[in-house]
């Protein structure tokens, strides 16, 4: 059967699911379609024309190359297709977003046919996705006296590709839709269990609202009732988009409520409108900007204050809220983009100027942030070639300089990495283009990142990026048919692009499923580095790291840059002394709890950088704190370390990178070897005192300062989803931190999970020692609930084997992973035993395996959102409580939460952490 017949069969299969034909990215399929177009008598000719015109993915897909070549033949008159005139062929090229389409346009524009050259030049003037090969051709043509090249470059210098775009509408009418009450996780918009379908945008769109067809129908009904308005999705009494950047979530919102990007490119929409009572989660808001969307902080519910300005609380100590205005589903509101105000029936409700900064309005006008980034680079190129100053077309980057004020750590990093600034010292609030050192792509968003790279016509990683890694951790649990189809293709693309990949497309080294954050934490060897990663938990304990959507990751890979405001910081320091039976995870949870208490329930971390003066903890353990800052709703975090501690961390990183090199994971450019060299240089700087570890200035200014009293941490701290709270807005937040004694030693635990990026080698050793303690205390180890253990990396497994701890774990386990025979199906039932799973994300991701529906899970992981780790049943809500490794282990042995006495006995003699506040002044 021909490839085209296969495609027709696939179309019929998709019809049964209510889907249109899948967009074409295959050169082989499109070549067959073109063959049928050329055959005037072919029975499939009409359908083939429609597929060619309306259903081919743009950019650098192999199909885009074939399409551009065919269109060139039509433009040059080498072929005649009555339905596709030369003018229409040029219009088609204008929608193909760079790569082969730009190459064809340059061929025609710089060709001998003057009339065609002028037409192609007019199209080129609208394009922004040009790379060095394209601009070099233009520059050479200019130097050879080409008037056409001069005309194009002059247009670029004026940024006419931007200035000639339509202005943003002054008034945008929206109709509200309450997507949920309380914080809304991106899982609602794009469930982790549907990660395999993210690159098929129409198919993935069916999972919107976690496949809730009633909600989908309500949304469609609103659109039908208000065809001239946009639907605004709202998190009532909460924050929209917590948990992750989730480009697929924004894509789904745009698909259901946004504006089509091009009539020739299906299922790619932009300009969604999203809102929350407490705004949009920081990394999700960045993703909204990628699509030229609008993200509003409604503040339609506010905390009540007494005459002295104190927050009024109810009997449970919760702040009492007052509704300032209603955004109930179906309410029609008007966004005035000129006044930057929100109205209802001409009554002003809210100033929304934060959503309409000059930079965000440029994103909206250009159809997304990529076009602005590439536009600025193109204008700079053109101006330099012509020897003229850059015309101030784009809003100038906001530069805030405060005389006499020192710099926080994040301000120092951005000043070090900033490009295109005036040279002034910049403080928080400044908008900065910054060079990126390390980039990470994970496997469930990686396919989207590869698509984004193709659509922005990128073919190779930027030379200014020190290193980049493509993981296989989110699909590590189950090597099923979906993974077998998607992951090798992803690894091949990323490896060719220039990333270090967890799997070798050539099969020379063993497939690695290490958790991406752990790998990035090791390959980040600069405390002044900026890291961008395709996951919200991209939060390194060296440098400053930002979780990002798949598109921002693609942009960082392609350009080596990221653009954002320098965030404000909150300083966190410690006092007191930890009790011997406390785990560092308890310090992490206590930080959140004490912060909320100190600030009357206000989360001062939200949207800011947490500068934690960790001092004495190496990068492995410190990562536990930085990782959790995603759940604190912080934008990022920075660890301030003592020099000796940073040296120790870098030595560990060097060793682990060397292991990757020894396994054959380095590429032809020697990226990993370069990172080892960089680490050695940094260690020398630290040892000689030439350049101490990153430290803020003593007179730096912070939004707030939080001092955590370790003496107050008297028992393990547990983050509880509070699934039965009468106020639904209080459910599934990470702010509900409870002491172990709250549960009275009687709360049933159905399953335990030790794993995810929140654990390190020390947790695995604690687990082994606890099992030996329990056996010594009770004569045997018997699990009354299943315990699933997933080490974060293979390095850790190897180190545990060398030190004897892995043998201890195997002794008590009923299942040990086998890489030669990985699981092909997700486990749905669990026995009361220890499962030693393959390194990777496992239950924390929720996209492959979950706990049994309705279970109460005690886990070391990061997420407690509804349905993430465990689904509900009709009788019982599933709940995922988050705690330290010792609490998880003991809860599975007992089948319930332990008492303090039981807990202290189980950890007796185990050094849970060596953390103590630094006695050194960690400022400059």
Helices, by number, come to: 31
Characterize the overall form: globular
Q: What fraction of residues sit in β-strands?
A: 15-25%
Strand order of the largest sheet: 8-7-3-1-11-12-13
The mean pLDDT is 94
Taking pLDDT < 50 over at least 5 consecutive residues as the criterion, the unreliable ranges are none
Distance between the termini: 71 Å
Structural class by sheet pairing and helices: alpha/beta
Helix content: 25-40%
Query: How large is the radius of gyration?
Result: 28 Å
Number of strands: 33
Reported for the largest beta sheet, the result is: 7 strands, mixed
How would you sum up this structure, described in words?
The protein is an alpha/beta fold and 924 residues long. The chain has 31 helices and 33 strands. The longest helix has 20 residues, at 643-662. The chain is globular and about 90 Å long. The termini are far apart. The mean pLDDT is 94.
Keywords:
seven-stranded mixed sheet; globular; alpha/beta; 31 helices; 924 residues; six-stranded parallel sheet
Task: Give me a quick take on this structure.
The protein has about 900 residues and is α/β, with parallel strands linked by helices.
What is the strand and helix layout of this fold?
Blueprint lengths: L2 H14 L10 H12 L6 H10 L7 H14 L10 H9 L5 H10 L4 H11 L7 H12 L3 H11 L2 H4 L7 E11 L2 E2 H4 L11 H5 L7 H13 L4 E7 L3 E3 L4 H11 L1 E4 L2 E6 L2 E4 L5 H9 L3 E4 L3 E3 L17 E3 L8 E5 L4 E4 L2 E5 L6 H9 L2 H18 L22 H9 E2 L11 E5 L2 E4 L1 H13 L11 E4 L10 H17 L2 E2 L14 H8 L6 E4 L10 E4 L2 H10 L1 E5 L3 E7 L8 H15 L10 E7 L3 H10 L7 E6 L1 H20 L8 H18 L15 E6 L7 E3 L17 E3 L11 E5 L5 H18 L8 E4 L3 H10 L1 H8 E4 L17 E3 L19 E4 L19 E4 L2 H10 L5 H7 L18
Parallel strand pairs: 1-3, 2-4, 3-7, 7-8, 16-17, 16-19, 17-18, 19-20, 22-23, 22-25, 23-24, 28-29, 28-32, 29-31, 30-31, 32-33
Antiparallel strand pairs: 1-11, 5-6, 9-10, 11-12, 12-13, 14-15, 15-21, 26-27
Helix pairs in contact: 2-3, 2-4, 4-5, 4-6, 5-7, 6-7, 7-9, 8-9, 9-17, 16-17, 19-20, 19-22, 23-24, 25-26, 27-29, 27-30
